[in-house]
Each structure stands twice: as C-alpha cells, then as structure tokens.
C-alpha cells in the first residue's frame, strides 16, 4: 500500500515512521509542507491509501488533514480528532460527557471571571492556553496576585485564544505523570515523565521511565481515545492521591521517541499498522 508522510521537519519520530513503512513492505511518499510544493483541491489529486499527519504546527496539521481528506485520502489522525485534541476546552468537554475523570476545570472570558473561577477552584491553580503543546505558556498561580499578573499578560497578547482563560486545579503529582499511547481499539504502552519541576514534559527536560500498566490505566486510555473520536493518541495522565488517575489532555500528533527508547515498543510500527488497519 502507498503511505504518505505529511511533515514539516524530519525529527526522530518521522524517521522511525519512514523506516517502519518500508520495513512493513509498503510504499512511502513524502509530503513536505514547507517545501515549494503546492496543492490543488481536485479529488484524487493525491495518490495514496493513507496519510500520516506529522506536521509540528497544529494549524498546519489540521488544515493539511482537511485538505487531504477532501482529496479522498484517509488521514491518521483524521481532522475531526485533530480539531478536538488541538483545543483543550473541547477535549475537556468530550471527556466530561462520558465521565472520564479529569482535574476540576473552569473557563472565563474576562480577567474578573478568571479570578472568580480560581477562587472557586482554590489556589494554586494552573492556567493553560486552550491550544499549544510542550507546556508553552502553561502557568502556575499560587495566589490572586500571581493570577492577575498572568491574566494581564495574556490579555495583552494579540491572539483572542489567550483571552480565553482555561483554569484547572493544581494536581499534586508524585514528581511524575504518565504519557500513555493507544487507540480506540487498544492500549499500546506508557512512560513516566519524571521531573523536579511541576511541568514534566520530556521536551522540557523530564526523564522517561517505562510504566508497568494497570488494567485501570489501559482501560482509561482506550476510553479516552474513544471519547475524542478515535485515532492514535498520546494521553497525559496524572496520579492523584485521593482520586486516582486523572486525564489531563491528549495529543493527536504525539511525540514518541523517548517512549520507544525506554519501553522497547515499536510505536512507529504500531502507528503504521493502525493506519493501514492491519
């Protein structure tokens, strides 16, 4: 089968996917979004059985998947899943609809509303942009003074997205959280992301170690993928002392090189097999 890899930059994850496509006996086609290539909107313009969407930019990932689907090619992940996972508010609503446990969350559209929301949840609170990744512009407000400073900064940023104040309780994690990988069909693998900092992303220096998954974690990951529309997702999970596992968010163009390295799981191969339904 013919597999298109849609990308902006070849990172280790994309290199592993390229090798997996060829190792599994399929034909690889590279679609570099940042090249001088352009796209027509003609049906059938892309001759491919499936496209792996690996653009780093959330905007480019979503728009390229919509365009490729319009051409009649299946995408992994599909635009419907990218649209949900690219928006933390939409993600939270989908998870809430099916009863998946998450941190207490509130949303405000004004500075005063943000302050009232934080008081309701109780300090400290975490403020996040509703889009973005790698922990960028995720902020901890320990009191009202810090909250006002963070909100004032975001109100001054040009994008209207930063004036949507998405506020969550601060979950007191045990120096780590979990990045798990799976689909609506099965759990794949998981790692701990360990850090002295409250933001544990491996892109921010967190250390990766393998997780011996419980049946609770495996079921939670599959349910989360189902709730968000399917696809191959990276699901971020926090361990709360009183409530157990809480889903923080999900990533539709997830990085996986560190997880593959420490677990020994062929995540790239799993993605390709999932994309081709094998």
Strand and helix layout:
Layout: E1 2-7, H1 12-23, E2 27-32, E3 50-53, H2 58-70, E4 74-76, H3 79-85, H4 88-97, E5 105-108, H5 111-121, E6 125-128, E7 139-141, H6 144-156, E8 165-169, E9 176-182, E10 187-194, E11 207-210, H7 215-227, E12 233-240, E13 244-251, H8 257-263, H9 267-275
Parallel strand pairs: 1-2, 1-3, 3-4
Antiparallel strand pairs: 5-8, 6-7, 6-8, 9-10, 9-12, 10-11, 12-13
Helix pairs in contact: 1-9, 5-6
Report on the architecture of this protein:
By secondary structure, this protein is of the alpha+beta class. It folds into 3 domains: 2-77, 3-Layer(aba) Sandwich (Rossmann fold), CATH 3.40.50; 85-100 and 172-275, 2-Layer Sandwich (D-amino Acid Aminotransferase, Chain A, domain 1); 105-169, Dna Ligase, domain 1. Helices cover 34% and strands 25% of the residues. The protein contains 9 helices and 13 strands. It has helices at residues 12-23, 58-70, 79-85, 88-97, 111-121, 144-156, 215-227, 257-263, 267-275; strands at residues 2-7, 27-32, 50-53, 74-76, 105-108, 125-128, 139-141, 165-169, 176-182, 187-194, 207-210, 233-240, 244-251. The strands form 3 sheets. A 5-stranded antiparallel beta sheet has the order 11-10-9-12-13. A 4-stranded parallel beta sheet has the order 2-1-3-4, with helices on both faces. Strands 5-8-6-7 form a 4-stranded antiparallel beta sheet, with helices on both faces. Helix 1 (12-23) crosses helix 9 (267-275). It is globular. The N and C termini lie close together (11 Å).
């Amino acid at each position: 089968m013919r597999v298109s890899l849609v990308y902006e930059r070849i990172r280790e994850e994309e290199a592993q996917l390229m090798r997996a496509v060829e190792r599994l006996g399929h034909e690889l086609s590279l679609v570099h979004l940042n090249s001088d290539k352009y796209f027509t909107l003609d049906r059938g313009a892309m001759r491919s059985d499936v496209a792996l969407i690996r653009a780093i930019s959330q905007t480019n990932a979503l728009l390229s998947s919509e365009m490729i689907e319009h051409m009649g090619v299946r995408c992994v992940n599909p635009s419907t899943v990218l649209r949900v996972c690219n928006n933390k508010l939409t993600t939270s609503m989908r998870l809430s609809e099916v009863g998946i446990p998450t941190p207490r969350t509130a949303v405000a559209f004004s500075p005063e509303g943000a302050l009232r929301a934080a008081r309701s949840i109780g300090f400290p609170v975490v403020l996040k942009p509703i889009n973005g990744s790698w922990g960028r512009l995720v902020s901890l407000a320990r009191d009202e003074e810090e909250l006002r400073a963070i909100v004032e900064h975001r109100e001054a940023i040009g994008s209207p997205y930063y004036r949507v104040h998405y506020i969550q309780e601060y979950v007191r994690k045990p120096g780590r959280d979990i990045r798990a990988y799976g689909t609506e069909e099965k759990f794949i693998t998981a790692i701990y992301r360990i850090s002295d900092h409250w933001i544990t992303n491996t892109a921010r220096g967190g250390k990766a170690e393998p997780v011996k998954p419980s049946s609770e974690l495996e079921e939670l990951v599959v349910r989360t993928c189902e709730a968000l529309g399917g696809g191959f997702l990276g699901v971020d999970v926090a361990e709360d002392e009183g409530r157990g596992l809480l889903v923080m968010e999900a990533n539709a163009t997830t990085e996986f090189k560190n997880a593959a390295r420490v677990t020994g799981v062929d995540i790239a191969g799993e993605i390709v097999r999932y994309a081709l339904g094998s």
